[in-house]
Amino acid sequence: MQRSGALKSFIEKAAGVPIDLTITDNSKSMLSLRHGHKGDVHVRIHRMFLDAGAAVIQEIANFIKNRRNKTPLTREFIRENHSAIEIPPKRRAVTSSEGKYHNLKLIYEAINEEYFNGQLALDITWGRRQTKTVYRKRRLGSYDSTGSLIRIHPALDKSNVPRYFIEYVVYHEMLHAALGIQVKNGRRSIHGREFKRRERLFRDFDRADEFLKYKL
Ligand SMILES: [Zn+2]
Predict the structure, then answer these.
(1) Which one in 68, 117, 186, 202 has a CA-CA gap of 20 to 30 Å to 134?
(2) Fold classification of 104-215 (topology level)
(3) Ligand 1 centroid to residue 107 C-alpha, Å
(4) 45-86 pLDDT tens trace
């Protein structure tokens, strides 16, 4: 059953009534019927039924004829196909800055005031949780310059990760935004001399560095 025209005439023939067929993408309502004034039936049906076999469509036609008719095949068909048609939620760049233990927005704002005169205008979010957590030194945070977005690894949202360490990671990413990528002698330098110099200006640099090396 490939096309809506074929579906419509199949149902009309099987149900014995003229129908007005609407194919929908509404995953909340697979099938709805409304009787028109002239003995016709308005049928709204989900797109998935375009691929249904004749037995399922016959059952729907019987149901249109008489709503007391049971629809086991149709229910089964919906159950089997429902997961395939569900549209996954759009990947949102900004998920949340408020974690269970650490609020990134507050940290970001404090750092922005303290080190950047409030000049940076960035978004910040906890990254999405992965099934497997892998710690790597420089992937604790990342800065996406196209979206002006800082992502912090969700593994850091723990009670035993001190705030100064999160601040350090956030500050590091903010520095990337502030300094950009420096090009020296034709070579791109991400953590160049100026970057390292500025990074050390962070008040808890030593403690944070220590934590990174030995506690994480
Ligand atoms: Zn970096």
Answers:
(1) 202
(2) Zincin-like (3.30.2010)
(3) 18
(4) 888 888 888 999 999 999 998 888 899 999 888 888 876 665
Nearest to 31 by CA among 97, 82, 96, 89: 82
Domain spans in the chain, listed from the N-terminal domain onward: 4-85, 104-215
184 Cα–ligand 1 center, Å = 17
pTM for this one? 0.55
Give the distance (Å) from ligand 1 centre to CA of residue 56. Answer: 58
Find, among 53, 58, 83, the residue nearest to 70 by Cα: 58
Residue from 108, 13, 120 nearest 62 by CA: 13
Q: From ligand 1's centre to the CA of 81, what distance in Å?
A: 45
